[in-house]
């Protein structure tokens, strides 16, 4: 049985909010008695009959003196009636009793307290449950109204620590999540998210109800009207009070909304289809995002937002045909170049993973109309090289290094200022590798300490072409410089120390922008134009790699990966697995939209350890976590060198994989620029155990694949970011034979 959190509960106002609190506390056995105070005898009787209160009274001053230290008073009357309750509390409330409230406006509660006590007393903890319904009154009370809902408390400087803790504990006892916020912030947030929608719903219904045609309007009103206006059935007194109590913040919200409504009116009047699509696609994306957040699915803000653990039980083989999601690198670039093109670009096969969605959202935030994604289809209404608009706030790029580095280049030559931010992992990644050459081109860019994000880019800097020999083999750096070159005076060229993925060069050419390529050098002239086109994004070889390794290490496996991009700057995983003895066949090889594509058949074959040729490293840079699992299952030693770049990915992938493999009983030793792995021939190479993916999608998926040769269950921590590159990994993996569960 749950321990009582408080002594007695006195609910002042036994309606939906107060009554539900009383019922929930009783259900949680968090208090020993509930006393209700209501304004009418009938409500008292009803509250007792419904079992909401143990006893009830219409007279607050009669009940208050009976309270003792440790008891709690919950004031749940309409906002403007709070002050009269406080007057009584001042006279009759015994010391040691805690008071909280449920009013929707906190500024007015604080003002009422100041009027009565001359300040906010330490025992008063203003609060607001973000739960409710259009129903009101004692009969609407429910014991689960607050379960999984948020409660905002707005404690003040003088609020007593014990009182605050008591209020927090009772809300938690009824299953609510407690947040804290300053009073002013609460009132502004609520004005926008709750009070304004009520104003609009009341006003819409009132407008239509007074129309001469109202009968027809209500008779034929379809689902939309019903959904939209549900809240106009709410309690008028409560809402009148809220409007008066939070007047300033609500007026601000109404003014902003009126401005937007009148510009939407203007767009409709002018037949401006672009402006209408802009508003509607942005709003749809925002609404979908919000639905995903409520469903606790990640979207651009994954690591902190949720915890996912993979539980991978030993499995035997993978079999079947599957198409993994679209290529991440190409998906990013399709949005970037489509936005800068003139005309409408249609993309098929777009990766609906968080990284690519972060890029998409960034361009929406800069005024580009983008329809979709809808089953991998995206339609981008390009604005031309000079058509981006200043975003209203920082561009948040989640976990995506590619988004931040390529955008840095593309935005360095704009006329507006912009700040690029990211999640905890991205905020630790080095950005001077792009900031330095961009500064050499004339850009004004500041980074955080040690060259880490955020990137603060000041617009209006004239850019000039640069010849840039890259200090490291990085497609992101190469692309950032070339994209900045689009805005530079004269010619910009890059020379890479080893071939890296060339999607930027290929796709620019697909958009009709001339890029000259000569061995390691790529060059373009600034101030040209991109012409819209169609893009077919093939399946991502980096995602396919997990299944290539899965099939290679588990006897009896035979798998076909359909429509995979096999660009020669990305095919290191095929070359390395083949060198280890892997059985990989490329079927139906073809060219789609300027990129080579094939169906890849992989069958089990015994692998042997190798010294991985350094020239393969950039061609397989993202596939090493999976390849290390293959190495652990190969006969003999595998040695990787020249791969120090792996240390600055979403995690330090050398250390993360070495630690995880050692935890699973494999002999692996991290070196400064690689790893040495002793392969084992046993049927079950990996012991069971727990490994930490450190929030790195590729580490998480690699250890899931290891379960095919594991003795016991592998638990993989912090796997939410798998959604950045491969949102349906678990579903596809279990479909072909892995035994993977999410917890
Ligand atoms: O340009 C790209 O799309 C990418 C380049 C690579 O990064 P580096 O350029 O840092 O090697 C790769 O690791 C990343 O996943 C995607
Ligand atoms: C390194 C990766 O991506 P990014 O640099 O875009 O975060 C990756 O996907 O493995």
Automatic annotation (TrEMBL):
The keyword Oxidoreductase belongs to this UniProt entry's keyword annotation: yes
Keyword Transport tagged: no
Location in or out of the cell: Cytoplasm
Catalytic activity annotation: 3-phosphoshikimate + phosphoenolpyruvate = 5-O-(1-carboxyvinyl)-3-phosphoshikimate + phosphate; prephenate + NAD(+) = 3-(4-hydroxyphenyl)pyruvate + CO2 + NADH
Function: Catalyzes the transfer of the enolpyruvyl moiety of phosphoenolpyruvate (PEP) to the 5-hydroxyl of shikimate-3-phosphate (S3P) to produce enolpyruvyl shikimate-3-phosphate and inorganic phosphate.
Assembly and interaction partners: Monomer.
Protein name, per record: 3-phosphoshikimate 1-carboxyvinyltransferase
Source taxonomy: Bacteria, Pseudomonadati, Pseudomonadota, Gammaproteobacteria, Cellvibrionales
């Amino acid at each position: 049985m749950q321990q009582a959190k408080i002594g007695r509960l006195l609910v002042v106002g036994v309606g939906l909010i107060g009554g539900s609190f009383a019922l929930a506390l009783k259900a949680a056995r968090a208090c020993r008695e509930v006393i209700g105070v209501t304004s009418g005898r009938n409500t008292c009787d009803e509250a007792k009959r419904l079992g909401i209160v143990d006893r009830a009274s219409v007279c607050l001053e009669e009940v208050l003196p009976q309270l003792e230290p440790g008891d709690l008073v919950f004031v749940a009357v309409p906002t403007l009636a709070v002050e009269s309750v406080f007057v009584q509390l001042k006279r009759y409330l015994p010391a040691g009793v805690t008071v909280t409230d449920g009013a929707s406006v906190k500024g007015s509660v604080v003002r009422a307290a100041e009027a009565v006590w001359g300040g906010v007393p330490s025992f008063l903890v203003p609060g607001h449950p973000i739960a409710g319904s259009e129903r009101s009154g004692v009969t609407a009370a429910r014991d689960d109204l607050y379960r999984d809902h948020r409660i905002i408390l707005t404690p003040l400087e003088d609020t007593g620590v014990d009182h605050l803790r008591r209020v927090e504990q009772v809300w938690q006892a009824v299953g609510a999540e407690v947040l804290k916020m300053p009073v002013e912030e609460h009132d502004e947030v609520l004005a926008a998210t709750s009070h304004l929608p009520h104003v609009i719903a009341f006003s819409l219904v009132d407008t239509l109800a007074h129309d001469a045609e109202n009968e027809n309007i209500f008779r034929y009103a379809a689902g939309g009207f019903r959904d939209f206006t549900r809240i106009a059935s709410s309690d008028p007194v409560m809402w009148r009070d809220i409007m008066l109590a939070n007047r300033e913040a609500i007026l601000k919200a109404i003014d902003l909304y009126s401005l937007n409504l009148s510009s939407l009116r203007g767009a409709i009047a002018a037949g401006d289809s672009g402006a209408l699509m802009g508003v509607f696609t942005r709003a749809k994306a925002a609404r979908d995002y919000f639905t995903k957040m409520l469903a606790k699915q990640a979207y651009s803000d994954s690591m902190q937002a949720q915890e996912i653990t993979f539980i991978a039980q030993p499995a035997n083989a993978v079999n079947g045909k599957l198409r993994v999601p679209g290529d991440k690198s190409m998906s990013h670039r399709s949005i970037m170049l489509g936005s800068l093109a003139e005309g409408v670009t249609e993309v098929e096969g777009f990766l609906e993973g968080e990284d690519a969605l972060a890029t998409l959202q960034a361009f929406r935030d800069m005024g580009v109309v983008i329809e979709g994604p809808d089953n991998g289809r995206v339609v981008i209404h390009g604005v031309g090289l000079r058509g981006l608009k200043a975003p209203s706030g920082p561009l948040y790029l989640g976990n995506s290094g590619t988004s931040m580095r390529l955008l840095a280049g593309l935005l360095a030559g704009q006329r507006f200022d912009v700040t690029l931010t990211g999640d905890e992992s991205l905020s630790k990644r080095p950005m001077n590798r792009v900031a330095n050459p961009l500064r050499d081109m004339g850009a004004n860019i500041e980074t955080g300490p040690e060259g880490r994000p955020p990137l603060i880019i000041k617009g209006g800097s004239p850019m000039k072409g640069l010849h840039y020999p890259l200090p490291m083999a990085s497609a992101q750096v190469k692309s950032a410089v070339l994209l900045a070159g689009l805005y530079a005076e004269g010619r910009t060229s890059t020379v890479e120390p080893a071939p890296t993925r060339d999607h930027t060069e290929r796709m620019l050419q697909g958009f009709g922008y001339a890029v000259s390529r000569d061995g390691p050098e790529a060059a373009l002239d600034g101030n040209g134009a991109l012409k819209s086109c169609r893009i077919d994004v093939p399946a991502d070889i980096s995602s396919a790699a997990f299944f290539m390794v899965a099939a290679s290490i588990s006897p009896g496996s035979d798998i076909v990966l359909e429509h995979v991009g096999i660009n020669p700057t990305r095919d290191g995983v095929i070359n390395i697995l083949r060198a280890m003895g892997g059985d990989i066949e490329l079927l139906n090889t073809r060219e789609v939209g300027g990129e080579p594509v094939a169906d890849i058949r992989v069958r089990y074959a015994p692998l042997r350890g190798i010294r991985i040729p350094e020239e393969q490293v950039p061609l397989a840079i993202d596939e090493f976590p999976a390849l290390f699992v293959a190495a652990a299952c190969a006969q003999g030693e595998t040695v990787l060198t020249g791969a120090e770049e792996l240390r600055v990915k979403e995690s330090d992938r050398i250390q993360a994989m070495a630690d995880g493999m050692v935890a699973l009983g494999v002999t692996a030793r991290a070196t400064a620029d690689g790893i040495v792995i002793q392969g084992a021939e046993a049927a079950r190479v990996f012991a069971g155990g727990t490994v930490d993916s450190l929030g790195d999608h590729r580490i998480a998926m690699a250890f899931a694949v290891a379960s095919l040769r594991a003795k016991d269950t592998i638990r993989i921590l912090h796997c939410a970011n798998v959604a950045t590159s491969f949102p349906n990994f678990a579903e596809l993996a279990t479909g072909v034979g892995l035994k993977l569960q999410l917890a």
